[in-house]
Amino acid sequence: MGENQVLNQLEPWSELKDKVVLLTGASSGIGREVCLDLGKAGCKIIAAARRVDRLEFLCSEINSLSSTGIMLAAPLELDVSSDAATIQKAVKQAWDIFGKIYVLINNAGIRGNVKTCLDLSEDEWDRVFRTNLTGAWLVSKYVCSLMRDPKRGGSVINVSSIAGLHRAMSLGGVAYACSKSGVDAMTKMMAIELVEKD
């Protein structure tokens, strides 16, 4: 796809110019590509993941898009499977980079090992849930607390999977499917709990 085609497809994203976006799982795959598209749309991006070397390369690529030399992207080391205190500290660091966060995209996730429910270990189950569900909840909790305190508002986008909707069941994916179902339920409940009351 040519550069002009990409820009034309991003035209509706023009309303996002200068919005600050925190995106987890940004070092590769979908997260990396979304960061690049957000950069082209003029967003300010906090690219978060475990692999800082990849984040630095990504942010350098995005910052090269700036015609004014203003920083568009900053890397943030964040392992969403960390404990609550570590995640809270990382979220505060993310907030301080641009002084706000307007959009959170919880993209970090893992598939886990392909094993049947009888062969999957408790540690493997916990690792998938810690990354896919608990991590998304903790990052959302701390970002939304900061969004809500000054009444700034904002948006949270949780990347889930069709596996969480029970439409694509893959053998050996019990932990993944269950964790993504949890992400879907968490998204709905947080939306209800965080909606502004008139």
Automatic annotation (TrEMBL):
One GO CC annotation: chloroplast
Subcellular location: Plastid, Chloroplast
Chloroplast as UniProt keyword: yes
Primary localisation category: plastid
Highest taxon listed in the record's lineage: Eukaryota
UniProt keyword annotations, A-Z: Chloroplast, Plastid
Keyword Plastid: yes
Family per similarity comment: Belongs to the short-chain dehydrogenases/reductases (SDR) family.
Full protein name: 3-oxoacyl-[acyl-carrier-protein] reductase
Organism: Brassica carinata
